[in-house]
């Protein structure tokens, strides 16, 4: 009984932290939660739960900010992501887990380092940039649950502020996670686990929204990138450890 209770408490803590970050910055649930969820639930269930939870949080967050969504940028982003989600699912079923973690962790880490350096990539501007970022993000989201860094990199090159980025990231999160959940399935959790996950999402949302009105924009951006980098490095380390 104790081990079950401990596992449920750990699952709730992971989801609460991820939910808080997602509400605060518009992305980051998977970057924070996936490495830990994989350890608690296993690789497949961890990614699927991250897809479903992040998608639900984005849908709730979008309710108050949908007027700020930029259709000209989001339509090509989302269409490209929808096209590559099946490829990410297919790859997860073909590659050994350590190799998959190395590939995805390397992609995340590289993207975040470019953003941290203030990289300006001409290929990530305009409609072509949106298609490229969406395609990579959709693939990464269904394969490893982390589709945010390419969208963050696109936003930096588009010159978006954090306040502009958040509603658009929420919109993207709804679409890409819906396609990822349809492709990967839904998590197989017990009734008690579902209750703890939903409760943790609610509490994390309250905390995240409270912090969003008090944390300066620059710090919020740095938080997104720091968490993304930590997630990428952790994924690489896990992959190396499994070889």
Explain the overall architecture:
The structure is a single chain. α1 (2-25) packs across α3 (43-62) and α5 (97-116) runs parallel beside α7. The protein is mainly α. It contains 10 helices and no strands.
Helix content estimate: over 70%
Our Rg estimate from Cα atoms comes to: 16 Å
- H/E element order: HHHHHHHHHH
Can you tell me the residue ranges where pLDDT is under 50 for at least 5 consecutive residues? none
Main β-sheet, in a few words?
none
Structural class from helices and strands? mainly alpha
Count of helices?
10
The CA-CA distance between the termini, in Å, is 34 Å
> What is the count of β-strands?
0
Task: Give the amount of beta strand, in percent.
Answer: under 5%
Mean pLDDT figure? 82
Shape call:
globular
């Amino acid at each position: 009984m104790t081990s079950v209770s401990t596992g449920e408490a750990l699952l709730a803590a992971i989801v609460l932290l991820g939910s808080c970050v997602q509400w605060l910055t518009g992305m980051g649930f998977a970057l924070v939660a996936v490495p830990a969820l994989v350890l608690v639930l296993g690789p497949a269930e961890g990614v699927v739960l991250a897809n479903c939870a992040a998608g639900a949080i984005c849908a709730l967050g979008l309710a108050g900010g949908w007027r700020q969504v930029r259709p000209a940028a989001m339509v090509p982003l989302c269409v490209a992501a929808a096209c590559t989600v099946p490829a990410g699912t297919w790859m997860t079923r073909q590659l050994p887990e350590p190799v998959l973690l190395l590939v995805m962790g390397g992609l995340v880490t590289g993207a975040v380092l470019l953003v941290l350096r203030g990289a300006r990539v001409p290929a990530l501007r305009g409609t072509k940039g949106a298609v490229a970022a969406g395609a990579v993000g959709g693939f990464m989201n269904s394969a490893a649950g982390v589709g945010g860094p390419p969208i963050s990199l696109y936003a930096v090159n588009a010159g978006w502020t954090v306040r502009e980025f958040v509603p658009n990231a929420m919109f993207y999160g709804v679409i890409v996670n819906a396609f990822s959940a349809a492709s990967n399935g839904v998590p197989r959790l017990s009734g008690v686990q579902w209750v703890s996950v939903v409760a943790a999402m609610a509490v994390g949302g309250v905390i995240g929204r409270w912090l969003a009105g008090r944390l300066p924009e620059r710090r919020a951006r740095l938080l997104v990138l720091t968490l993304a980098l930590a997630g990428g490095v952790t994924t690489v380390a896990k992959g190396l450890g499994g070889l």
